[in-house]
Design a protein that fits this description.
two-stranded antiparallel ribbon, 10 helices, alpha/beta, 37% helix, peptide chain release factor N(5)-glutamine methyltransferase activity, 277 residues, Rossmann fold, transferase, 7-stranded mixed β-sheet, 9 strands
Length: 277
């Protein structure tokens, strides 16, 4: 049965609210725009019209997926991050606004080559390279499927970057002026408290080390010195309570000029240190 946009939207909001979706109205509006193929700001102008059958079918499928708590970005197939739009899939971590803190911190540092450990969508690496023309960049990830997404994003944005399947530094050659990473930092005993959108839909290996949440930092800090140029920098995203522990790991490995950066909510988000061999 044909519905107007108003009717379909109201029904969708009720469906999402019943499923426990936090921003039912906002998500329904975004998904209706997706189904209609129009920007979100144009959706309200379509609400009094009958929905075309293809849009009604697409909207129903999108609402069903969101009611199952699939993230909006995965349904849309993309997420805005920094200054670009990145393709996302169930094989990649969804780029988050707080991760832009790492991009800002890295752009304050002097470097012309960068290694991104656990590149995922490539959002961090490609955002950095877009701001520093002529710089060289390598992104590594253990997931071949994630690397395919990163390569697609690089091609779509016209940004030159290399990608390699690797378990952290395994097989990585050469030295870099900067190493960045947003590694899995959620402790195993914290996983149950995550929202269904994260816990059930994002790749588990990108979320947790199945331990205390510091395992990735131990591996990265231990191997970074062999892959940094003298005076090069290591900058990593952290969970808000991990600043002191990660800074201590860097200090014990001989890093100097160690500093913490906060995100827009005032929480510790980035630890950075300079390699001083």
């Amino acid at each position: 049965m044909s519905q107007t946009g108003h009717q379909a939207l109201a029904e969708a909001v009720r469906r999402l609210a019943a499923a426990g979706v936090p921003d039912a109205a906002g998500d329904a509006l975004a998904l209706l725009g997706f189904a209609l193929g129009v920007p979100r700001h144009s959706v309200r102008g379509e609400l009094s019209q009958s929905l075309p059958a293809p849009a009604q079918t697409a909207f129903a499928a999108a609402i069903e997926a969101r009611a199952a708590r699939q993230p909006v970005s995965q349904i849309l197939g993309w997420r805005e991050f920094w200054k670009h739009r990145f393709r996302v899939t169930t094989d990649t971590l969804d780029p988050r606004p707080e991760t832009e803190t790492l991009v800002v911190a890295a752009l304050d540092l002097p470097w012309d080559s960068v290694l991104d450990l656990g590149a995922g969508t490539g959002a961090i690496l490609l955002s950095l390279l877009a701001e520093r023309p002529g710089a060289r960049g390598l992104g590594v990830d253990l997931s071949g499927a994630a690397l395919e997404v990163a390569r697609d994003n690089a091609q779509a944005l016209g940004i030159a970057a290399d990608f390699q399947c690797s378990d952290w530094f395994l097989g990585v050659e050469g030295r870099f002026g900067l190493i960045v990473s947003n590694p899995p930092y959620i402790a195993l005993d914290e996983m149950a408290a995550l929202s269904p959108e994260v816990r059930e839909w994002e790749p588990r290996a990108a979320l947790t080390d199945e331990g205390d949440g510091l395992g990735a930092y131990r591996a990265i800090v231990a191997g970074a010195g062999a892959h940094l140029l003298p005076g090069g920098w290591l900058a990593v995203e952290i969970g808000p309570t991990q600043g002191a522990a990660v800074a201590a790991l860097m200090a014990a490995a001989g890093f100097g000029e160690i500093a913490l950066r906060q995100d827009l909510d005032g929480r510790d988000r980035v630890v950075m240190g300079q390699f001083l061999p």
